[in-house]
Amino acid sequence: MGWFVRERKGISWKDQTLDSISAPPLPLVVFSVLLIVLLYFETSSEQKERVERKKSGFRFGLLLLPLVVVLAVNMTMLRHKILRYNFGAPKPVYEAAVETAEEGTPVARLLLFLLLLILMVHYQSSFHSSWFRLF
Question: If 0-12 CB within 10 Å is exposed, 13-18 middle and 19+ buried, where does residue 132 land?
Fold first, then answer.
């Protein structure tokens, strides 16, 4: 029966390993914690700066959006006029009446320009604060 049951002949390797484990020295722990905290602050400041840069870029894109829409509409109208001129198609009657009525007062263009101007004045302070920060 001695074959199936082992007798202990001293301390096992598991007990020796658990007995030899101790806490690391205090200066090493302090240095590791300090290093981790400094790395965290460095990456968080870079992250905040990156987020602010993307916010100002997004605001600038929103500011330019009305200008892009106006240019797209203008180019579309110009393209239709050029195609009509090249193929010699006569102007439809209703377009001729609209053009003669708009020649005296371009109200829609003036309103669009005023809307764009008001939008630019409204967002001026936010762009000045994000682009021209004093260090």
Answer: exposed
- Retrieve residue 52's tokens: 């602010």
H or E segment to which residue 34 belongs: helix 26-87
The single-letter code of the amino acid at 67 is L
Q: Length of the chain, please?
A: 135
Report pLDDT digits (tens) over 27-81. Answer: 999 999 999 999 888 888 888 888 898 998 888 888 888 888 888 888 888 777 7
Of 74, 73, 95, the residue nearest 84 (C-alpha)? 95
Task: Give which of 125, 121, 134, 126 is closest to 55, Cα–Cα.
Answer: 126
User: Do 75 and 135 contact (CB within 8 A), yes or no?
Assistant: no
**Do 120 and 59 form a contact (C-beta atoms < 8 A)?**
no
pTM summary value: 0.35
Amino acid, res. 55? K
